[in-house]
Amino acid sequence: RRFNMSLPMRILSLDSNSHDLKALTRDVSYRGLYFLAEAEFKLGSAIEFIITLTEQVTRSGDVNIRCHGQIVRTEATQNGKKGVAAKIDRYEFLHAAA
């Protein structure tokens, strides 16, 4: 089941020459997500990102979840950003200071 949720996320750079990217989710499920970003992604490539469940969602405080996955689809959107679907292979909840 997918949940339509616009959550902030940070895509972590997998090499030392790049910066982290900010993006927003469009929908999230247990095994994957779809997000909008201003970058190109290669099909099949590994991705590591942190999704923030905001206080409005958790009703207590922000919760960060670090995820590892793989890009499964990309598409152009009307607003000029890329729509990206990724599967989630594993995840972990981060401590509040992370």
Mean pLDDT across all amino acids:
92
Through-space gap between termini: 28 Å
Helicity, in percent?
A: under 10%
* H/E element order: EEEEEHEE
Question: Which consecutive residue ranges, at least 5 long each, have pLDDT under 50?
Answer: none
Number of helices: 1
In terms of DSSP E residues, the strand content is over 45%
Structural class: mainly beta
Q: Strands across the major sheet, in which order?
A: 2-3-4-7-6-5
The biggest sheet amounts to: 6 strands, antiparallel, barrel
User: Rg to the nearest angstrom?
Assistant: 13 Å
The backbone outline, from C-alpha atoms, is globular
What is the total tally of β strands? 7
Brief summary:
The mean pLDDT is 92.
Could you explain how this protein is built, in words?
- It is a single chain.
- The chain is mainly beta.
- Helix content is 4%, strand content 56%.
- The protein has one helix and seven strands.
- It has one helix spanning 55-58, and strands at 3-4, 8-12, 21-28, 32-37, 46-53, 63-76, 82-93.
- The protein has a six-stranded antiparallel beta barrel.
- The radius of gyration is 13 Å and the shape is globular.
- The model has no long low-confidence stretch (mean pLDDT 92).
Topology:
Layout: E1 3-4, E2 8-12, E3 21-28, E4 32-37, E5 46-53, H1 55-58, E6 63-76, E7 82-93
Antiparallel strand pairs: 1-3, 2-3, 2-5, 3-4, 4-7, 5-6, 6-7
